[in-house]
Amino acid sequence: MKTLVLCNLIINLVNVCGLAIVWRQNRKVFAGLQLLLLDMVLQATGFLLLLLRGTLPDVLTMVVPNLFFIIGALCVLYGLEQFFGAKSRYGLHIVLMACYTVALVYTSLIRPNLGLRETCIAFMIFFVTAQIAWLLCRRVETSFRKIAGFTGLVFIAYASLNLIRVGLLIAFPPQASDFFKSYALDAFFVAAYLCLSVLVAMSLILLINRRLLEEVLFQKEKYQISFHQVPYAILLTKMADGEIVEVNEGFEQLSGFSKEEAVGRTTIGLNIWLREQDRAFVVTELAKGNRVHEHMIAFRHKSGQVLKGSMSSSVVNIKDEPCMLTTVSDVTQQAQLNDRLQEMAMHDGLTGLPNRSLFYDRFEQAAANALREGKKMAILSMDLDAFKAINDDYGHPIGDRVLVEAGKRLSGLMRKGDTVARFGGDEFIFLVWDVPDRQALLSLLERIMGSFTAPLSVDQQLIQVSISVGVAVFPEDGKEIDVLLRKSDQAMYRVKDTGKKNYATY
Predict the structure, then answer these.
(1) CA–CA dist 72, 209 (Å, integer)
(2) Tens-digit pLDDT profile for residues 74-87
(3) Distance of CA 259 to CAs 180, 249, 313, 450, 506, Å?
């Protein structure tokens, strides 16, 4: 359960970053965006406080987080009401929040009751998200319902999930008194909230972007004002020859080219496109009569810097001539953040080596290639001998450094196509690509053993480390990764049982 709460925290931090960028770019254009951003901040803070249960007073880890979740949901409601110009209704919400706060304090601190507390929370989330769904589907002006439809569906799903949860909590109240030790159904709902939080952030950003584009395309009487005030880069080009007719200040800021430098030239002449296939895709889609919506592209700044953008494009008629109206928003920071999160998710946090997930992925690719090309591979399970003694004698910080240095030595033995991963503790796994014969495999094993002959230098200390290795060969010993790992582990444990500091095949 704590892992799911941690994942919710990470996702909400990403959502905060995404909404912060959208808020910064659009705060002068649309009302209510600051409340949508505040919701993401409150959600992230709430999950952080939940994780700190046991280290902070119960009022901060049980009452405050659940208050933040409901206040955040109300912020979305009020923010969207401001965004669409709908009237807000505060009286009923004030009364309900007062009752909810009393119920939360009573079921958390005075007479703890996990089932009743969770029922109150689920009902309040249902109540607020149902109002948001009703706002998006029925209360907004008819002209806005098309762009609000997807976000409305997301909140309908959110409200439905919580209504189901209320029913299940009433029918099957949890027996546990600790949220983190509650039954598996709670874990399912926390995981569902994780997925829905991603959808909520995506739908809100999509909603904002779609409304911005709709105003540029369909409110022609406000064209000049909208064209030059939106924070996105916008350019208007002729379909016939690609000549740039007009650009806005956002384009000048994003691309580095002034209006005078851009108008009359083409995007090819400005050398903006990093990949020709991106330009070809846009041109082809528009020629088919389709719109291009939020297509991710890489483009060049005037300085040569490579940036990433979200591009939308459609065909409009200007003085009876078909032109391409294009908007580009800078998502470089979001892309870099996503890349960093992806890197963290697929690599060991201590050594930087691939983790189990990335290793499995690489094995699947290597195995497919090996079967197609008729090659063999080897899986090597490796443990440092007496690593517990190193931790006991030198301390865990030194033990961690030993693991890092051991990982570096093993990585130094890799060839193209090989992978060294750390699964945890002192367990390393070596995927050896293209083993032509037994002699080549034995030669590699000797090099591995030899690489640990010299002691490791850690914080000006020399620490002697040895290693035990077990080997399984693909496809002779198996074609599935779990089978090969089990057999290589068995071979390694035979080594440990017979004196360590050696290797053995299955």
Answers:
(1) 22
(2) 999 999 999 998 88
(3) 58, 8, 20, 65, 70
The token pair that represents 13 in the structure block: 């931090």
The structure tokens listed for 50 are 């939940």
At residue 28, the pLDDT reads 86
User: Rounded CA gap, 390 and 271, in Å?
Assistant: 57
In angstroms, the first-to-last Cα distance of the chain is 38
Residues of the chain with confidence (pLDDT) below 70: 1, 175-186, 215-229, 339, 343-344
Q: Tell me the pLDDT tens digit for each residue of 194-222.
A: 888 889 888 998 999 888 877 666 655 66
pLDDT at 164 (0 to 100): 92
Write out the DSSP string of 228-289.
Answer: HHSSSEEEEEETTT-BEEEE-HHHHHHHS--HHHHTTSBTTTTT-BS-HHHHHHHHHHHHTT
φ, ψ of residue 323 to 5 degrees: the values are -130, 160
Q: What is the rounded distance in angstroms from the CA atom of residue 301 to the CA atom of residue 163?
A: 50
Amino acid present at 367: A
**What sign does the CA torsion over 317, 320, 324, 326 have?**
negative
Residue 476, token pair as written in the block: 């002779």
pLDDT at 32: 92
User: What pLDDT was estimated at residue 400?
Assistant: 92
**How many Cα atoms within 13 Å fall on the side-chain side of residue 416?**
0
| Per-residue pLDDT at 175 | 66
Q: Can you spell out the DSSP letters for 114-135?
A: HHHHHHHHHHHHHHHHHHHHHI
Q: What is the pLDDT of residue 403?
A: 93
- Which pair of tokens denotes residue 214? 């709709």
Residue that has been written with the tokens 């009923």 in this structure: 92
Tell me how far the alpha carbon of residue 348 is from its chain's centroid: 17
